[in-house]
UniProtKB/TrEMBL annotation:
Protein keywords: Cytoplasm, Protein transport, Repeat, Transport
Annotated protein name in UniProt: Importin N-terminal domain-containing protein
Domain Importin N-terminal: 1-66
Organism: Pelagomonas calceolata
Transmembrane segments: none
Any single biological process term in GO: protein import into nucleus
GO molecular function term, any single one: small GTPase binding
Annotated family: Belongs to the importin beta family. Importin beta-1 subfamily.
Highest taxon listed in the record's lineage: Eukaryota
Length: 745
């Protein structure tokens, strides 16, 4: 590290070499994986002595004053990473003082570059620091330096770096936003920056305002009128699309915040407690102004050559319109419908596509009954539009039909199911982009039959069931199956059709099963000449295993004659030890166990080693999670016949709970699995009781930080797993003697 720091800070060294030294030094201090990052932090303190750490820090601070921009930038990255490590531990107290001193440098030659690199360091530092790592005095000092860097008379490079740093520091400025004078100063600086001649500064300023809307919603009242004017002007008039997109993002953030508050209020109303946040309904109040701007200034700005996932002004406007529909509801219906009626048959393709997109975004938010007539009127037009001469128009029409099937299936006009299904089936022959959206629509249409009784002899999809499955299975083998996730979308639609099939289509499902098994069998003989070929094979195996799981659960006991063949293929998939394919194979085997119950015992000899390997797969936590779920399925299926395998399963589950490197998302399922084992082996579970109860007690003792939403959600799921384990243990140990003096629950 010392050598790298010297290479980085030495002015006479090669520019490229200095930059590489800085990047390598940064990577020695930081990793995206939390466990690896924690290990690197440990090594910084244990493997690097105090003198060497001090040398590295001094060298990296020195390079912030370098005349070489690349070296100074690399130095900013390293200073921020070391600062994030040390400030958390209340080390390097002089760091902020040194950085703030750089902001007042009088070095005429390098003044602006020094300020720029220092502001970069402050920005990166704020990204990495926890909020409690700096006190309010330090926050004030950082904020003062940043705001000073954004002065209108400053160099534009310094102002842009300061704006980025301010964006990163906003999470630390809660106390400053509580102070009206300081809050107004920050808002004035940001609002002024939105009018800068520099596009990059305008972009960052609007992005910061969007972040303010999310972080400090309750502080917006005195600024909302100015923000309304600034954002709508930028959306309509700014020559840089990125600036307009960030202005749109302000309203998207505002919508998301208001929707979250309304959801909280609804939850509070149900629990009869007081909500601490009030929704000001800014979006609803401004909807009559925002919606026309979104329709006329964003949705019609499509780039016909952009990829489907490209984020541009048209895409940002469409997402924002959908959020406005949810936040403002009925208020936007007249404006959107007027736009749709005026443009859906327009000669210009951009107008047609924009009107269909607007209609699709309108479908979630307003009262459903308000949309009954519009949906019924639009259906024939949308179905015809699947044959439009422009790909984007067809793509959006198929997506909108998918939204109708998802949200308003009951409003599809009587007698229009046949032309809808036939047109979507025909669209499967279109470009991969359109075909993928057609799969999405067919998936949602099939999902609409989810609540139909499984015992019904037939349903409205039965007449189209065989041709649809044939067309979807053909789509999975198109030459362009990789484009727009066509193969994955087609198999998802196949799964949903099978899941919701009526009894009269059972023979067709069993025919499809034979096709799927043949395809799965053929994957093992596929010629593999590259890593891409190998990944392609595993991805296909994953999809086919997923279909087998759905078929198994859908046909119930009808699967039994085919189980030997199915299990043999699934074990072959597990033998390849590929994470994605193994995860689906485990779940398919769990479905078979649940269906055939104790007859699954005949497969345990071959399957058990794979199960144990899966339970110990800490690196691929999704595989571990799937194997835990399958272990529970097998225990419920075999009941007392699982006993010969229990010692090893319980040992693995206890190791899972104790392993700090295993993703915590697996652990609630592990706890629940103890309940499945207890129910399966009844009184024989008593030998595992002490270790099980100890683990349950430790898990129940975990503390909740109300400010950490992810942790609160995790603890809730964990406690559900704990309760399921206790219930299984109590129900399993039915003999009172087993409970007496053994536990207190």
């Amino acid at each position: 590290m010392v050598a790298l720091a010297d290479e980085l800070s030495e002015e006479g060294r090669n520019e490229h070499s200095r930059q590489l030294a800085g990047l390598h030094l940064k990577n020695l201090l930081f990793a995206r994986d939390a466990h690896i990052s924690a290990e690197k932090k440990r090594k910084w303190y244990t493997d690097v002595d105090a003198n060497s750490r001090s040398h590295v820090k001094i060298a990296c601070l020195k390079v912030l004053r370098s005349a070489n921009p690349q070296a100074a930038h690399a130095g900013a990255l390293v200073v921020a990473k070391i600062g994030a490590l040390e400030l958390q531990e209340k080390q390097w107290p002089e760091l902020l003082g040194q950085l703030l001193k750089n902001m007042t440098t009088k070095d005429v030659g390098n003044s602006n570059l020094t300020k720029t690199s220092t502001l970069e360091a402050l920005g990166y530092l704020c990204e990495d620091l926890e909020e409690e790592a700096v006190d309010q005095t330090e926050t004030n000092q950082i904020l003062t330096a940043i705001v000073d860097g954004m002065r209108e008379d400053g160099a534009i490079t310094v102002r842009v770096a300061a704006a980025r740093a301010l964006l990163s520091s906003l999470v630390f400025t809660r106390h400053n936003f509580d102070n009206e004078t300081e809050r107004t100063m920050i808002m004035q600086v940001l609002c002024t920056a939105t009018k800068s001649p520099d596009e990059q500064l305008r972009i960052i300023a609007f992005e910061s305002l969007a972040r303010v809307a999310a972080l400090y919603y309750e502080k917006l009242p005195q600024y909302i009128e100015a923000l309304f004017t600034l954002t709508l002007t930028a959306i309509q008039q700014d020559k840089d699309e990125q600036v307009s997109m960030m202005a749109v993002e302000f309203w998207s953030s505002l919508c998301e915040e208001e929707l979250e508050i309304l959801e909280e209020t609804n939850s509070v109303d149900q629990s009869r407690t007081l909500s601490h946040r009030q929704c000001a309904r800014y979006v609803c109040a401004a909807a009559s102004h925002i919606v026309p701007v979104l329709l006329q200034s964003t949705l019609v700005k499509q780039d016909e050559y952009a990829d489907e996932d490209t984020w541009n002004l048209s895409a940002a406007g469409a997402i924002c319109l959908g959020l406005v529909a949810q936040a403002a509801g009925d208020a936007i219906v007249p404006d959107v419908l007027a736009f749709v009626e005026s443009n859906i048959l327009h000669a210009e393709w951009r107008r047609r596509e924009a009107s269909i997109m607007a209609f699709g975004q309108l479908l979630d938010g307003p009262k459903p009954e308000l949309l009954t007539d519009p949906v019924q009127t639009a259906m024939p037009v949308l179905v015809r539009t699947l044959k439009d001469n422009h790909t984007l128009v067809k793509d959006t029409a198929a997506w909108t039909l998918g939204r109708i099937c998802e949200l308003h299936a009951q409003r599809i006009p009587q007698g229009y199911l046949q032309p809808l299904v036939e047109s979507l089936g025909g669209a499967l022959q279109d470009s991969a982009r359109v075909a993928s959206q057609s799969c999405f629509a067919l998936h949602n249409l099939a999902q609409a039959f989810e609540r139909a009784p499984r015992s019904r002899e037939t349903n409205a999809l039965s007449p189209f069931f065989r041709p649809l499955l044939t067309q979807l299975l053909a789509a999975t083998e198109r030459r362009d199956w990789q484009d727009h996730n066509l193969r994955g979308q087609a198999y998802e639609a196949v799964n949903m059709l099978i899941q919701n099939h009526a009894r009269d289509m059972r023979p067709v499902v069993l025919e499809v099963m034979q096709v799927v098994l043949q395809r799965l069998h053929s994957t093992f003989s596929t010629v593999v000449v590259s890593q891409d070929d190998k990944e392609e094979r595993y991805q296909l195996q994953s999809l086919l295993c997923s279909v087998m799981q759905v078929i198994t659960r859908a046909v119930d006991k009808d699967i039994e004659p085919f189980c030997d063949h199915i299990v043999a293929l699934l074990l072959q998939v597990l033998n390849n030890e590929h994470a994605i394919a193994s995860e689906e194979a485990f779940m398919a085997l769990g479905a078979i166990a649940s269906t055939v119950e104790q007859a699954f015992d005949k497969y345990m000899g071959d399957f058990f080693p794979f199960l144990i390997k899966g339970l110990r797969n800490y690196a691929d936590w999704q595989v571990c999670s799937a194997s835990v779920g399958t272990a529970g399925d097998v225990c419920r299926a075999l009941e007392s016949r699982i006993l010969p395998y229990c010692d090893e399963i319980v040992r693995c589950l206890l190791e899972d709970l104790q392993n700090p490197t295993l993703n915590r998302q697996v652990k609630p399922a592990v706890l629940s699995c103890f309940g499945d084992i207890a129910l399966a082996v009844s009184g024989n579970f008593v030998k595992y009781l002490p270790s099980t109860l100890q683990m349950l007690e430790q898990a129940a003792a975990m503390k909740i930080s109300p400010d950490d939403e992810d942790l609160v959600e995790y603890i809730t799921v964990l406690r559900e797993g704990i309760l399921e384990a206790y219930i299984g243990v109590v129900q399993g140990l039915v003999i009172r003697a087993c409970l007496h003096d053994s536990c207190s629950i």
